[in-house]
Amino acid sequence: MRSRLPFNLKPFKLAGPLLLLGLTACTLTQAQVPPRNIPIHQNWVLQPGSKVGDFSVVGSLGDVSIDLDGHKIKAPFDGQVQPAEHDCIAFTSPEIPAYLFRLCGVTRPRLGDVKAGTVIGRGDVLQFAAMRRQPDGTWAMVEPAIDVLEKTFAK
Amino acid sequence: MTPHHPRNPTREQYTSYFPDARTSGAYPTDFAPPSRPTSVMPRPPVARSQPARAATPRRSRAAQPPRRSRNAWLAGGGMLALAALVVVPKPSLPQAEQSASANVVCQETIKSESVLSRAELSKLLAIAERAPKADIQAVIDEPYCTLPPVNVRAGVVSNREAYPLEFNPQTWFIVLYEDGEYAGFDFSFERD
To answer: pLDDT band at residue B40, thresholds of 50, 70 and 90?
Structure first.
């Protein structure tokens, strides 16, 4: 039965697998970054992603909420971005040992090794948490310096 | 396909499929499979405000624009453009912006021949975080260089010292101090 479409289907048949290949290539490279488990020193019950009834907690105690309105989020130092629980990402850098930044609310984050200044995503309302490693291996929430925040959201 | 069967046949050809076709509404047999094998799915005739095409002289096939190949090019080009958007990696930032915010260089070289041996490294790893700075300095010598001080925590300036590893000079051991306390270490790979 001949197609009723006004154009020929042959180009679609050729480009379809190509498009699929491209999409799988993109998703596979992102999937290779292992997730990061962040045991928090302050044993708060509510964390980003917790549920209160039908509603999700977006930011918890220790998160600094930034109204980015879709602006870019950049890596403040050379480091690596790993996925964390509940749509959050963990940023660590060998240049600042003993510190970890947890960013929640980042849309389409760029995972893996990144250079300082590389865009790692965008966000509407970002929840930024700075954590410092404790001797027992847990991470304690600390107040981030404005300097680091400026490096992360600088235009 | 019959010899004279253009892509979009004129109305007059369809009327033969519908002996008593009506111009308004759908004909019940429109949705039934054709009773005899046909190469084109019959379309019900639709009332047109413009005069029927049959009234105008039909152009010969040779004079008609090659609609099929043009549409094919458009469709193929569109799909390739879509694929390119997906496959092409994200554009990187301009080099000037990257180097301005990069913090990879030493601020001050302290002792250019300073390296960290395996024995010193294993002793360092045994020291817990938040130990006084003196504990670290008891194990290792002066650093190769100091990195610029950084403000990570509000109200606290962090100092960093770097030591290349003796057994792997391209890997640096970076130590962070805050308020005279040892905060932690990390390894920085692929350094010059």
So the answer is: low
CATH number of B107-188: 3.30.1450.10
Those residues whose C-beta lies under 8 Å from the C-beta of residue B124, and which sit 6 or more positions away, are B116, B136, B139, B140, B173, B175, B185
User: Which one of B186, B189, B190 would you mutate to disrupt binding with A, by most A Cβ within 10 Å of its Cβ?
Assistant: B186
For tokens 């301009």, what's the residue?
B94
Q: Which amino acid is at B162?
A: A
User: In B, which residues are within 8 Å of A20 by CB distance?
Assistant: none
**ipTM of this complex:** 0.74
- The residue of chain A nearest to residue B34, with distances taken between CA atoms, is A1
Cut 0.80: pTM above it: no
| pLDDT tens figures, A109-152 | 999 999 999 999 999 999 999 999 998 889 999 999 999 999 99
Range of the domain at A100: 51-153
